[in-house]
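Please check this:
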Amino acid sequence: MTLAISNHTLNLQARLDQVEKLIGHTPLYPINKVYSKTGVQIFAKLEWQQLGGSVKARAAFNIIKQAILNGQLTEEKELLDATSGNTGIAYASIGAALGINITLCLPENASEQRKRILESLGVNIVYTSKFEGTDGAQLKAKELYKENPDLYYYADQYANDHNWQAHVTTTAPEIWNATNGKVTHFVAGLGTTGTLMGTTRGLKQFNKNITAVALEPNNPMHGLEGWKHLETAIVPKIYDATVADQFLEIDTVEAFDLVKKIALKEGLLVSPSAAANLLGAIQVAEQIDSGVIVTTFADDASKYRE
């Protein structure tokens, strides 16, 4: 029996090594047609170009990897978490490759395409109220875990330090190397907050003078999936308000309008949250005379088609 468990563990670790090669290593795309300003460069990291199709692949993989290595997640347990879609799809893609079953609590108003993708990947979906967003999904996931702790490994991406730590070790050095150390500003929206927390901490290890700009929706009833209006939402435990150097508000309508402009002028079909990040980067560009601004295009438009 001990030998069998050991073999399962070894097999999982071997598969982890294979999957890890498909995480990260995404390119920087220069933005120069939607917006340009002499002395200022804006780059967007094309995060959908990895397994799972979004920036959330980094956090999802690191959460799963550390749980397996620590013995918290085995083939006999299901990974449980709350998601607005992208982290769930990353969990599902990685889980399928590793032979790990996934149960996700998902707001019922998630896009139909996201629902179909999750169903195709074999996820057990527990739908929650569209009026409660990811906050309601989190509460449901905690309830399920409390009812059956032996069945689940509760990943809890909003409180799991392996979320932001993934960006310290991957996103930050990729940006630093791709810009030859010239990056001056990093801009990202706040959802789980892992991207901003981890990438900022990682970049400041290279240069403490890099400015981190956090983006939030400008009202609670926004339309940016995955983003949080922190004043009215459950604040993720991994969030630290002292990490960002500046905060900017983003309007949903302006972000959706920018989606069309990015497609027409840059040839990229991006998600509303990606456009919102670029909107924030443009706001930063308007404030400075010179610099290299980097943001993330968290995902493309494919998961938003009905």
About this structure: Confidence is low (pLDDT under 50) at residues 1-6. The beta strands are 28-31, 40-46, 78-82, 101-107, 124-128, 152-154, 185-189, 211-217, 246-250, 291-297. The two ends are 48 Å apart (CA to CA).
